[in-house]
Each structure stands twice: as C-alpha cells, then as structure tokens.
Amino acid sequence: MKLSSLNFIESIAPISLRQLIKRQAKRIFGIFIFLLAIYLIISLISWHPNDPSFNNHNNGLIQNFLGTSGAVISDLMLQAIGLGSFALISMLIFISADLILQKRKIFGLPKYIKYPLSFILITILLSSIDITNSGLFKNVINWPYLIGGGGLFGDILVQFIKNILIGHVDFIPINHQNKFIFFLTSLLLALIYLLNKTILRFKKKKDTKLLQSDHESQSLVKQKWNFFQIFFNYLIRLIENLRRKISGLISRDKMEDLSFEEIRDSISDKEPKDNIIIGESIDTKPTTDNFEINQKVPRKRKAVREPASENLDLFKKNSYSLPSVNLLKDNNEINYNNKISPEELEQKASELMEILLKYKVTGEIVSISPGPVVSLFELQPSIGTKSSRVVSLADDIAMSMKAVSARVAVIPGRNIIGIELPLEDRSTVYLSEIIKSEEFLDSKHKLAIALGKNIGGRPVVVDLANMPHLLIAGTTGSGKSVGINTMILSLLYKYTPEDCKMIMIDPKMLELSIYEGIPHLLTPVVTEPKKAIVALKWIIKEMEKRYKNMSKIGVRNLDGYNNEVKKHGGVFKHKIQVGYDEKTGQPNYHNEEINLKKMPFIVVIVDEMADLMAVAGKDIETSVARLAAMARAAGIH
C-alpha cells in the first residue's frame, strides 16, 4: 500500500515530535500575521491622498513610509473597508498573540464567529456615520473619498439594510435611517460583548465544578481504599496473634511432657558448635551436679507506664567554681618588645622614609609601636601632602620593604598616617595572657569575649551583648576555629552556668564535640541538621517565653528583668482584670502572685553555618532571621 508524505511522516515520527512541530508551525504563522499587521498599520499611518495608487497617478515624492507598495495597499484598504482597516489590524494582532503565546484560555464565543461578526458590525457602524459633515469628525479627519467611513463594503451593507427598512418599516423617516442603523449596530455589538462574557463566566464555573467533583471523587476513593486497607490489616494482625498464641500453647504442652535430658539435648543441638578450639582437651564430665531445673516458665511482666516527670529546670543553681588559669599554656617566649631592638626599629624607620621620599612623600616618623605580629610606624606628613596619595602607596611600600603586605590608613582624630608592617618573627598570642589581664578581669561587659591583642600589644576584650550577633568568615586555615575556641573559653573562664548557658551545633562533629558534658550546655552538642532545626526552634520558644515574662513586670531587657527578680526575690504581684462591678460598672482587678526566676544569657554557637544552610536552608534561615531580629533584648546571642 502506498503512503502519502504526510502519512509517512506521521508513521515514523513520535507523538511528542509531531506536537512540537505543530506548535512551532502555529507560532511561525502567528509571527507572520503579526508582521503583516505591523506592515499594514505603518502603511495606514503614513497614508497620504496625493501618493500614487490605482486612482491617482503622481510622479512626485511618495510620502508613505513603505513606498509605492504601502501607498497602494493603504489606498485599497481605505476604499474597501475604510476606517474598519484599524479594526481588522487589531483583530490580526489578537490572533497572532494567541498563536505565538499558545496559552490555554477559556474562550466565550468561538473566534471564527466573534471576530468576523464584530468586523462586519464595525464597518456598518462606520458607514452609518457621515464623516464629512459630522461635527465629531469634521475637524479631525479630512476624508477625500465619496464613500462612507466603512468603505465600499460598509456602504453596500448599509444600503442593503436601507432597502429592507424602506420595504418593511414605514415609521422610520428616510433622513433618520442612518441613525437607526447606527443605534442597531451599537446594540448588536453590546449584545455580542455581553454574550461573550456570559458564556465565559459559565464555562469557568463549569470547569471549577468539574475540578471540585474530581477532587471529591479522588478523596472518596482514597477514603474507601484507606478503610479497606485498615480493615484487612486488622484481620491480618488478628490472625497472626491467634497463630502465635496457639503455637505458644502447643510448645508449652510439649515442654511439660519432655524430660530434663531431652530438653538439654535439644538446647545443645541448637547451640553453635564453632566455639570448640582444635588442639584443646574437652571436659566430658557431666555438669548436672547440684543443678535444679524449675519447670515453671516465668511469665513476662507487663510494662508499667510511670508518670511523666515535671519539666526540668535548665537554669538550676549548682556548686560551680570557675576554672583555673593554670590549665592554659603560659607564654614562655621572649617578650616581643625584646625580640626587636630599638636600633633595628630606627633602621626600618629610616628605610621607610627613604622609600617615601622616592615617591615624593615628605614627612617625619614621630613614633614606632612594636606589636606581636606587626609594627606601627606613625608618619606625620608635611603640609601639602595628600593623605590619599600616601594610602594608595600601600602595595609599593610592601614591595620596597620586602614585606608580605602593608596597611596604610589615617589615624582618626590625629594628623598622623599609620603604616603597619608585619614582623619577620611573629609572636604567638596566648589566651592565658588575656585571661590574666586587667582588661578581662575588670571588664564590665555583659558577655566579655577575648579576641587577641591590638597593635600596641594590649589585650582586646569586646562585649558580645552589644554586637549583638557575630559571624566569622575566612579562608581555610585562616584561624576561624581558633577564634571560636578562644571565645568559648573566655566565656567559660568569666561566667558560671547560672550566668551563661550555651547551645552548640557542630555538623562537622569535630570542632565543638570536645565541650561535651560541660555544665554550661543546655543540651548535648548537636551534630545532626534535623536536631539543629529543633534546637533553634526551642530557642525561639524560649525567647518568646522570656518576652512574656519581661512584659509582666514591665522591663525591656534581660538586665532589667534580673535586677527586678533580685530586688523582689522572684515574687511579683500582677494586676488582672476579673470583670466589672454590677453597680458602678467599673472594672474589678485581682492581684495575682507570680514566681519568676533569674534567667541567664544564652549563647548559640553554630559551626559550619554554610553547610547547615545547604542541608536545611529554609528552616534554618527562618529561625536565624527571627533570632537575629528579636533575640538581643531576651539575652540570646
């Protein structure tokens, strides 16, 4: 049998490919119609009555943007359908948009009825208007044709309607026939619009009902299936329980009939024989001496559900003493002030001034401050030297001084520019030095954490409560873990568990696991992402609980709350409205005693935040955002 080319393509191409080709063909056809509409509208907009056409011969300048073809086509369209050309172009644009976008829409009237009928009525409407004598169009349109606004096609339709009216309707005067036709076509256009809207609304309601019925039928099927599934599962469990009970009774009867030797032999047969070691003697003496067997099989005791314990007091007082500083390693190195001599510093200062003079920067080194890692050279530039010029020379200074890097910045509040150069032999900053320092011991910070030393060698202690949150970032090996451990230890050396509690989240299971078991922890170190989400949600509930307690006694932060608790001994009288007086109508109040306890600071430490966000991003992001926005006043950081 011979196949046509179309049948052959359908036989070898899959359905998805055929649908794709069909969609793309529609889209290409829609683009062609859109370009045609653009061509027509440009030719109509630039139409001029003096341009050459089939009715006008002119060898002069063509004013139409599209040349001769545009002039001829625009003249033909205006003579054929008049101003209805713009209605035709609008419909072409709508049709091309449907073909290009190919969106599934619910339509009212079919497009092959709505568009032609609307176009015919619009041309009749335009032809029923006397454009040349109408006051509305006289000053706007200079219509050169002897036909109406609907073109030759509209005039034919209007004349056809007039002939019908003359032959059958006598009450309409001849000079009012155009007005009657205008009114009738306007009414028909409005009816088409209303009919389209009504059909569209009806179809939408029908579709929603069908969707609801489909969902209801699916839910009924699921409910029926769930009911039968539960019923059959219950039958299976019941049969299984009966089988176990019967087999247990049979085995118990058999055990009662067996003698001791048979029981012993059956047990020895079931025991594994791989425990015998070759080469050793086996004791064959009977082991039944002084051996009694109780033939009564003890029954298993039923599990008794004990009452649940009350909520644990996570902030209970306990005897705790701060750890000794002797546990930390002491600094046995030579003081960094003695590592480099004043002569060497002066020599470096002179080298630095020579380099600055090469770049035409004049001034004087007024002070040198050696530090554990870098040395600060204070340059007082001469009058007329721009500070921005000196700051821009940082890389050049580092290269000339053979240093890894150089930092140049203006010291605030002074006419001095600081130049920091790293030392060749760096000194290690020990935590024990900072813990023993006066800055740490005498600090009035709420949550004092040690960060290190400044450029002058003085300990740097900051308050976490004022930050109020801290994010540490850096490359691999840049000291992030050392910094976190330093901060944790500084909190442990400064505050007791009554003053500061911690929650540690360590997905890597390496950094923070060493702190497992310390009394400051509210929970064991969290290592799983799901448990981390639970821990953060608990912190949010604790934050909301703290805010409620603070609102009851009228304070705004944790310090004010703890001061009030200490002042009143934890007992407060809360005024509550219990109703209204029947006689006076005034509200009645009742004083209720509230027992509140001191609340410690809570520090949440999360290691590898990026990894945690990658695993459980949405839940973690929501919890962290709430804590970052609201937890500061509640003492959670």
UniProtKB/TrEMBL annotation:
List GO molecular-function terms, semicolon-separated: ATP binding; DNA binding
Its keywords, alphabetically, are: ATP-binding, Cell cycle, Cell division, Cell membrane, Chromosome partition, DNA-binding, Membrane, Nucleotide-binding, Transmembrane, Transmembrane helix
What's this protein's name? DNA translocase FtsK
Organism this protein belongs to: PS1 clade bacterium
Stated role? Essential cell division protein that coordinates cell division and chromosome segregation. The N-terminus is involved in assembly of the cell-division machinery. The C-terminus functions as a DNA motor that moves dsDNA in an ATP-dependent manner towards the dif recombination site, which is located within the replication terminus region. Translocation stops specifically at Xer-dif sites, where FtsK interacts with the Xer recombinase, allowing activation of chromosome unlinking by recombination. FtsK orienting polar sequences (KOPS) guide the direction of DNA translocation.
The UniProt family comment states: Belongs to the FtsK/SpoIIIE/SftA family.
Oligomer and partners: Homohexamer. Forms a ring that surrounds DNA.
Superkingdom of the source?
Answer: Bacteria
Where does this protein hold ATP? 474-481
Q: How does it sit in the membrane?
A: Multi-pass membrane protein
A Gene Ontology cellular-component term: plasma membrane
**FtsK domain segment(s):** 457-637
Q: Mind telling me which residue stretches traverse the membrane in this protein?
A: 28-47, 76-100, 112-129, 180-196
Q: Report the locations given in the UniProt record.
A: Cell membrane
Q: Which InterPro entries match?
A: FtsK/SpoIIIE/SftA, FtsK_4TM, FtsK_alpha, FtsK_dom, P-loop_NTPase
Q: Name one GO biological process term.
A: cell division
